[in-house]
Amino acid sequence: MTKRVAVLASGRGSNFQAVVEAIAEGRIPATCVALITDNPNAFAIERAQRAGVPVTVVDYAAFPSREDYEHELLAAMEQQRADLFVLAGYMRILGPAIIRAFPEKILNIHPALLPGFTGLHAQRQAVAYGVKVAGCTVHFVDENLDCGPIILQKCVPVLRDDDEDSLAERILVEEHKCYPEAIRLFCENRLEIHGRTVRIR
Ligand code: GRF
After folding, report:
1. Residue 194, pLDDT above cutoff 90
2. pLDDT digits over 118-127, tens only?
3. What's the CA angle centered on 69, arms 67 and 72, to 5 degrees?
4. CA quadruple 141, 144, 150, 153: dihedral sign
5. What per-residue confidence (pLDDT) applies to 1?
6. Domain 1-102: which topology?
7. Residues labelled catalytic
């Protein structure tokens, strides 16, 4: 059965675009029912409009507190009747109320080989640390940052003259393959979570 997938993004939206294209090409048995963004200036909005994906803006700056924002965001997410929420460069931490509302139904992509280099500027952290291999990780979201059970990881080499930007670009190429693939596996009901381990059927 076709799944309802909603994407949360805050900015450029290249991963959102990769997911939308994979759905349009029939590589994921899903419909993209919404782009939800906290940023009214996100370029992802233009991408959604071009692809005919409905946009919901929950403007973080318009709320007096984080609690008020999250309350509205939760309501916007519930309205989608989504089978899956995909965080694609969503630059805020989801509060526990939202995570508990959608257990095992939220995925994230992080531009590092977790559990290394969590949080912001993962590619900068990788270059500064001097690792020889970097990459990206798609994982289920739990209540700890960049911590839930891992679905897929792809690696890339770190080259001698890399800086944060060149490494980010190389990782992004893999993100655009890895995220649609993980979402496809989810939508085909092929992911089983056993503790920290995700088994692919
Ligand atoms: C990606 O590197 C993703 O891994 C990270 O934020 C970036 C978002 O890029 N979470 P985009 O908005 O999908 O182009």
Report:
1. yes
2. 999 999 999 9
3. 110
4. positive
5. 80
6. Rossmann fold (3.40.50)
7. 110
CA of 39 to the centre of ligand 1 (A): 14
**pTM score:** 0.97
State in Å: Cα 174 to ligand 1 middle.
11
148 lines ligand 1 (CB under 6 A): no
CATH top class, domain 109-201:
alpha beta
| Cβ contact 85:105 at 8 Å | yes
Q: In angstroms, rounded to a whole number, what is the distance separating the alpha carbons of residues 49 and 26?
A: 20
Write down the domain spans for the chain: 1-102, 109-201
The ligand 1 atom nearest the CA atom of 111 = 4
For strands 106-110 and 133-140, give the pairing.
antiparallel
Pocket test for ligand 1, best of 92, 164, 175, 179 (most atoms within 8 A of CB): 175
The candidate with the shortest Cα–Cα distance to 94, out of 70, 118, 77, is 70
Distance between CA 117 and CA 101 in Å, rounded? 27
CB 33 within 8 A of CB 5: yes
| Residue nearest (by alpha carbon) to ligand 1 atom 9 | 89
The answer, yes or no, to whether any atom of ligand 1 lies below 6 A from the CB of 88, is yes
